[in-house]
Design goal:
Elements (H helix, E strand, L loop, with lengths): L3 E4 L3 H12 L4 E5 L13 E3 L4 H11 L4 E4 L6 H14 L3 E4 L12 E4 L2 H7 L6 E5 L15 E6 L12 E5 L6 H10 L4 E5 L8 H9 L3 E4 L9 E2 L2 H9 L4
Parallel strand pairs: 1-2, 1-4, 2-3, 4-5, 5-12, 6-11, 7-8, 7-10, 8-9, 10-11
Helix pairs in contact: 2-3, 5-6
Length: 246
């Protein structure tokens, strides 16, 4: 019998969870637990880490998992890497459900960087107003340039003091639209945007707004991950799950 572990945290994961539930699949949805009130899912759900690749491998064996689908955020590099190594150790097939990266188009002013530190260095030295659209995990690096005012948009209110001295926090959950993001940037006088290339439609509105407002975007590229099969749609994942040689 097929028993699926779905590593979630993205819109795509939630879409796949609904499809699995409607198909009557035996599946478990796993959240990292970084959001206080995650979106409810139509599948049995677990929250929290596994204890690294070794802990995940033990979980796969103990729970009789036959397939793993990694639909985590494209920047959840540690979890995705752990999944590859755990599945290899436990002999469990793995595929990634991954959305395409954003591509710059006509009128975009993107500066591509590979790491957070490069994005910090790419900001100007003169005081600016920066929409720091990278979540809350990597904020400390930007303390190296405390002269800027940083706008943060977070799902949950910060529980501890932020590592940046000059910030404004907006609490909101996507998806967002271009009109709303244009208004957000105009209200806060944004001059620069820093974003991770997460891809997907839910957070792309800021890029449309940046293009319309002729604002520069410092785009951080995705981390390098171990090789793994990648599927780009729910249909592709479902076909992979139903194939006996997956």
């Amino acid at each position: 019998m097929t028993r699926i572990l779905l590593l979630g945290g993205t819109t795509e994961a939630s879409t796949l969870a609904r499809t699995l539930a409607e198909a009557g699949s035996d599946a478990v949805f796993s959240y990292a637990g970084r959001t206080a009130e995650p979106v409810s899912q139509p599948l049995p759900t677990r929250v929290g880490g596994f204890g690294g690749a070794e802990g995940l491998a033990a979980y796969l064996v103990a729970e009789n998992i036959t397939h793993v689908v990694d639909a985590t955020h494209p920047f959840a590099a540690q979890m995705s890497s752990n999944a590859v190594h755990a599945c290899d150790a436990a002999g469990v097939p793995l595929c990634a459900f991954e959305r395409p990266a954003w591509q710059a188009g006509e009128g975009d002013q993107w500066l591509h960087t590979d790491r957070i530190e490069e994005a910090v260095n790419a900001l100007p030295d003169t005081p600016s107003r920066v929409f720091l659209a990278i979540g809350k995990q990597n904020l400390a690096a930007f303390a190296a340039k405390p002269q800027h005012h940083y706008l943060l948009r977070l799902v949950d209110a910060p529980e501890a003091p932020l590592p940046l001295p000059n910030t404004t926090v907006e609490i909101a959950r996507g998806p967002f639209d271009a009109a709303g993001d244009t208004d957000l940037m105009q209200r806060h006088g944004i001059t620069h945007i820093v974003a991770k290339n997460a891809g997907g439609a839910g957070a792309a509105a800021k890029l449309t707004a940046a293009r319309d407002l002729a604002l520069p975007v410092i785009m951080i590229g995705r981390p390098q991950l171990p090789e793994r099969p990648i599927k780009g749609s729910v249909a592709e994942v479902m076909a992979w799950l139903s194939h006996p040689a997956a």
